[in-house]
Amino acid sequence: MTPIRVLQVFTIMDRGGAESMIMNYYRKIDRSKIQFDFLVHRNKKAAYDDEIKALGGNIYKLPSINPFYPKSYYKKLRALFDAHNDYSIVHSHINTFSCFPLKIAREFNIPCRIAHAHIALDTFSLRTIIRNNVDVSEVLKHIIKLFLRRRINKYPTHYFSCGQKAGNWLFGNTSFERMNNAIDSEKFQYNSEIEKEYKEKFNLKESIVIGHIGRFDSQKNHSFLLNIFAQLLKKNPNSKLILIGEGPLKRKIENEAKNLAIYEDIFFLGVRDDIVELLQTMDVFVFPSIYEGLPVTLIEAQSSGTPILAADTISEEVKITDLIEFISLDKSPEFWAEKIMDIKKNNMPKADTKNLIIGNGYDIISNVNKLQDFYLQQNTNK
């Protein structure tokens, strides 16, 4: 049997939330029946490229989409579909920009065209971005996303979302299917030996360790996180911050840390493949994003038993254990730091949350079977 090839559309296959989510599905899906290929919009090599190729997937690289002048992009995408005319399913994960590849997929009569919502950017979060002095180009990108949202319902045949909030934001009144940001709960289960090993490795045995995983861009609000950490150091000088990720604002954040005189207490670890172990190392996971959909990192952190302080801009759907507390971004960094101290003072042992992850539908096994059945059904219907 020749597997059905599904074209997954992303910006780049680095270790972001949506990218990690689809890789969780890709590793577990029956690749004798379903095979993934990837259309990306950056020319550089990405973190998951080698693994994708090892799993049997192809990677097609096109230039970035210019929303004002898409004709050049359309020409290249038409050439791609002319050369590879066996796709019956295109699954696009680039939010409002999905209207561009799905428009050409419709032109080529590809019968199953999926738009997948991963973020929710509402008017409040846009005001917050402006209030936080974000670069003008970043604000323009968000305005473009709000504009393109009007076109998103023109080209898909199916609508998926990571959660209710993201789906409502992107699709409005159009109904959509929920595709959970599922993880391998067995893999992320808390392990005290791993925690001990990694705290020794980074010389953190006596420290309060807070951590964050996310791309260095305006959405993730790293500047606010630095101010939280600066306040935490005033309360407990033996505190450390682990930052995992890359991105365009990394150098800016490093300079801000130096200006705050906290740089020496921060681990800038870049992109990592030992996320499981690093989550075990953190005493508190701090996530002050300006906007999100339903972050897979918060599912992973809960699976590892790590207490979480998250911005109340994030959908409460992500709260599948009692480990998360939501805090307003209007609260001061000192308030957030005091909350971290309260968690540390309580000194509760890390929880075994595996059954909660499974019970709430976020384990990969049941979810991958559902997605596989959907793809197979679409191929039968074509």
TrEMBL record:
Query: At the top level of its lineage, which domain of life is listed?
Result: Bacteria
Domain (Glycosyl transferase family): residue spans on this chain? 196-349
Question: InterPro entries, per this entry?
Answer: Glyco_trans_1, Glycosyltransferase_grp1
Q: What is this protein called?
A: Glycosyltransferase family 1 protein
Question: To which species is this protein native?
Answer: Gaetbulibacter aquiaggeris
